[in-house]
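Sequence in, structure out.
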Amino acid sequence: MEETQLLKGILEECVLTLISEKETYGYEIIACLNEYGFTDIQEGTLYLVLNRLEKRGYISCRVGRSPLGPKRKYFSMTQKGERYLIEFQKAYDRITHQADMILKRGK
């Protein structure tokens, strides 16, 4: 089965959830996604997601020093992003519960 469409539907919210935990930067987000098994996420894909989240006002970005060399972009959650994520999580829980009732019935 092609997982791309399923992933596309939740990747932004997964990234937003990681950012909600602490200010972070791209490489750290990718490393965390990899830890959870999302090993096919490329840097270019992540930065498209980050740009969309920033344009919607869900995250903010600042350029700061890196202890390892060149400056990097740090991302943090905005209040608008916090409100959006709460609403998304409610909708996600409701939809996955309803889908599970159908997909797992009789098992």
